[in-house]
């Protein structure tokens, strides 16, 4: 993928991330302040937080306030669940209409619905509403309808889902998505994106037929992504009912399964690569690569390698940071990365919020305008065609910069709290503080690196 003018224009319109122009503050000051915040947080925790306060996934949480019976009855009703499924089907149908009948133009709303509404929008939606994709997922609805037609139980498949697979299929699906968005040179052409979405639907339905609903919980990249982010919402579960509780208490209940470290590594590493690929250093390197090789594929190969390095590097560094500590009786070091993997979720959410904030707000509005004309015929089916994008936040760059830095710092502070609570519940007393130092240094490195990339983009 050479950095030709037309390619650059397509990338900016399809993935217009605000970079250094949005951050009119000193990067050195921001990084120093973030490191200080993490260090102070750890010190306070070491002095004041000496016993674990949140249950792990193995102990059902008892805290939180249950919803009133009347509201719980509404949420459990077939009418409510059906309404949510209808919302998912309407979204799917409108996106499919644009993908199948729309024109292969950047004005096609399918790109915004796929890259912005679905991918980026899952984060705020899951933070506010809980595991929203599980409730509205069109592939789950199709699976349910097919099961009803065939007279089978949608919860059970032909085979039992292998426990050793864990979240690995979801990790592969997430990597396939970020590869399509960030590396594939034709990511803004309708055919390849439409093909990716079609393969996703087919694989999900086939997996659902084989393994039942468990397949969606552990293999659907969007459902796993949404459910992990939802661990930072206030919506939890207690005795089969919805309970309102601390996000940290919900976060501690993240299920530890094979592949969880890979999932968080892909999510965090790909976001870091997205910033890195827009940095002047990488752009100059790609230009030189093309000049030497005189082939577009040279830059594409470089991007592929860089994406793998970022995702694999995050996973490797996290594994080393969690394993370089003392272990108690009956524990194995290789199990520690999975036990601490949930602490990466606040970091991911904070960095995604910082990296995609202006992109989501502005391109999301633009998508809503274009969605009124899915086939690019000049129609205005939704009545939004004459709306205009509000760029208020971009017109206040200092506020935007502070929000982005705050997102990164707050995410890491929450991660330090979650890691401390898990450490004092897992590690022997002689290692409860010193054993956290490698992970603290890792988080400081992630913070500094994340902010540096955010400023460098």
UniProtKB/TrEMBL annotation:
Membrane-spanning parts: 29-49, 82-102, 114-133, 165-183, 195-216, 305-328, 340-361, 399-419, 439-456
Keywords carried by this UniProt record: Membrane, Transmembrane, Transmembrane helix
Record carries keyword Transcription: no
Originating species: Nocardioides marinisabuli
Protein name from the UniProt record: Fenitrothion hydrolase
């Amino acid at each position: 993928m050479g950095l030709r003018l037309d390619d650059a224009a397509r990338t900016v319109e399809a993935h217009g991330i605000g970079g250094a122009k949005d951050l009119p503050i000193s990067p050195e000051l921001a990084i120093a302040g973030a490191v200080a915040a993490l260090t102070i947080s750890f010190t306070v925790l070491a002095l004041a937080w000496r016993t674990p306060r949140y249950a792990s996934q193995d102990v059902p949480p008892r805290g939180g306030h249950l919803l009133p019976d009347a509201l719980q009855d509404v949420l459990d009703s077939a009418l409510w669940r059906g309404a949510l499924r209808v919302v998912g089907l309407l979204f799917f149908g409108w996106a499919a209409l644009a993908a199948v009948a729309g024109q292969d133009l950047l004005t096609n709303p399918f790109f915004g619905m796929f890259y912005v509404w679905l991918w980026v929008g899952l984060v705020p939606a899951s933070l506010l509403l809980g595991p929203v994709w599980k409730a509205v997922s069109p592939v789950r609805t199709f699976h349910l309808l097919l099961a009803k037609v065939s007279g089978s139980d949608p919860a059970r498949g032909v085979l039992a889902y292998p426990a050793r697979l864990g979240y690995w299929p979801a990790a592969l699906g997430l990597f396939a998505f970020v590869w399509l968005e960030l590396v594939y040179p034709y990511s803004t052409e309708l055919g390849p994106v439409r093909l990716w979405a079609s393969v996703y639907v087919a694989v999900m339905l086939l997996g659902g037929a084989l393994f039942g609903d468990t397949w969606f919980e552990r293999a659907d990249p969007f459902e796993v992504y949404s459910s992990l982010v939802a661990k930072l919402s206030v919506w939890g579960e207690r005795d089969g009912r919805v309970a309102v509780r601390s996000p940290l208490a919900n976060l501690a209940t993240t299920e530890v399964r094979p592949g969880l470290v890979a999932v968080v590594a892909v999510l965090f590493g790909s976001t870091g690569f997205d910033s890195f690929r827009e940095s002047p250093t990488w752009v100059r390197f790609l230009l030189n690569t093309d000049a030497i090789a005189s082939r577009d594929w040279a830059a594409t190969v470089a991007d592929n390698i860089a994406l793998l390095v970022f995702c694999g590097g995050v996973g490797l560094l996290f594994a080393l940071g969690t394993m370089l500590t003392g272990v108690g009786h009956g524990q194995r070091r290789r199990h520690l990365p999975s036990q601490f993997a949930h602490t990466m979720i606040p970091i991911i959410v904070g960095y995604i919020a910082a990296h995609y904030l202006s992109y989501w707000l502005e391109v999301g509005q633009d998508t809503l305008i274009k969605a009124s004309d899915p086939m690019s015929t000049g129609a205005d089916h939704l009545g939004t065609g004459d709306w205009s994008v509000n760029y208020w936040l971009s017109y206040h760059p200092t506020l935007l910069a502070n929000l982005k830095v705050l997102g990164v710092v707050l995410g890491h502070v929450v991660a330090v709290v979650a890691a401390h609570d898990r450490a004092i519940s897992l590690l022997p007393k002689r290692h409860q503080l010193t054993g956290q130092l490698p992970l603290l240094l890792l988080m400081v490195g992630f913070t500094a690196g994340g902010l540096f990339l955010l400023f460098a983009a």
